[in-house]
Amino acid sequence: MFLILALPACSMACTTIIVGKKLTKDGSIIHAHLEDMGVNAVGKLWRVESCTHKETLALSIPYVEIPQIDKTHAYWASGNADIVAGLGVKHINMPYDNVLVGYNERGVVMSCNWCYSKEKNFLEHGIRRYAMRQLLLERANTAVHGVELIGGWIDKYGQADWGGLQYQISDPMEAWIVETTSSQWIARKIRDEEIFVAANRFTIGTQFDSASAGLVPFALEKGWFDGKEPLHFADTYTLLQRRNSPYDTDRESRVLFLLEPQKGIITPVNVLRVLQDRYDGTNLFHIPDDEVEIWEGEAEKTGCPRPICTNLAQSFFVTKHTFENQKDETVMFFGLGTPGYSGIIPLYKECGEVPPPYSREADVDMQAWRLFRKMQKLTDKYFSTFSAEVQSFWEERNASTILRVEKSNICDSRKRALDTFKTSYDNLNLARKFLKKLVAHDERCGKRDKQGQKGLSFGEET
Question: Are 171 and 328 in contact (CB under 8 A)?
Fold first, then answer.
């Protein structure tokens, strides 16, 4: 069964940045991603250990069966489902229906952005995108191996439910993007001297490194391409109304504008600061309104430009890949909620424990995501009073975390796990102190507004 899906009212709106090693301060590759899923999409984190599968010949995933491999990699992942066996369980039977981003023990990092293809979407026919992402974490040995896996799966099975997707894959040596439709794919290696940024549209033109065999014949058959010039993938395969939407192009241009002065000395701190941007200092800036989700339809209706950072954020990360003395090192700095309102934690690829407030088993009242989300809501509610102090605090705190990790010589996995736990609980305790003042201020303002009086300032005693 095939179905042409209409443009959804809530277009997913992730933003991804990859910085080539010649543009960073220390020759590392930086891979950053802002996962936008909406104000009620709870962010969670989990870890799955490596597993052997000697007795398993086939693996059932949505919506096909594929051959199982002998051993799958351990990996970190974040997503939007709650199915898990519990902390400390080494072998977790995942439903292949929940991974959004992650990275594995080989240092392979994966993120993904929605795009919009002219090709029909296959409803429940092929491999679903969540399964594609989890399979990649389980199996990819390198970034280019991840490209080969995705291409092979689409060639053999097709991609189900939503065909227009861009996968971003990096490791300590290189980074790639794979742009996909329901039945076709094309891939390009990110250049060492390049800042790559993607919103929600295809980006590959006539220059690419590999592609599906049917890419050109399929376009010719559909009448999208006359064959007289080299095929420009984005122009040929993008849904016309999405090709150059300001909803996408404005974000991409803003990232490049902000990072241009830092070329050659870019660090994770610089990139994290970009993820917090709302067109600050320009006439495009708007005070955040938590009653509004700035998906594309809303942006067009209200005339409110879509910034990089919004209340749609479920999670975000900035990963640093380095490769020195024949040894690779990958550290993901991971945050839940909205950049600027959340503390990041370092995730070392070999450490196997998740801080409980970040896990899928966390009690509602203990969830890190809910704590940071509540802070974001109250800060935005009283934006002119609180935003500068709150965001400056987290910017300084997160920069300190990144610099501390970069200078650290900790190699022992147990000490690294303790570092992750300590950072997470320190962040949460600091967030609770801020939140206590924010809640008290909100309560006072509510009472005084009823009496026609002005609320207290943030610095006054509670």
Answer: yes
SS3 430: helix
User: Domain map of the chain by residue range?
Assistant: 2-348, 363-450
Beta strand spans in 308-424 (E): 313-324, 327-336, 345-348
Cβ atoms of 310 and 369 closer than 8 Å: no
Bridge pairing between strands 121-122 and 127-128? unpaired
Distance CA 90, CA 96 (A): 17
CATH number of 2-348: 3.60.60.10
Using alpha carbons, list the distances in angstroms from residue 199 to 19, 240, 352: 15, 16, 32
Task: Write b or e for each residue in 381-397: b if 16 or more Cβ atoms lie within 10 A of its Cβ, otherwise e.
Answer: bbeebbbeebbebbbeb
Residue ranges for the chain with pLDDT beneath 50: 1-11, 83-94, 453-462
Provide the Cα torsion 432, 434, 438, 440; round to 10°: 70
DSSP per position, 187-253: EEEPPTT-EEEESSS----S--SEE-TTHHHHHHHHTS--SSS---HHHHHB-GGGTT-HHHHHHHH
- To the question of pTM greater than 0.90 for the whole model, the response is yes
* Torsion angle (degrees, nearest 10) of CA 209, 241, 113, 399: 110
Conformational region of residue 34, where left means phi above 0, alpha means psi within -120 to 50, and beta covers everything else:
beta
Using the 8-state DSSP alphabet, how is residue 24 labeled?
A: B
| Residue 344: predicted pLDDT | 98
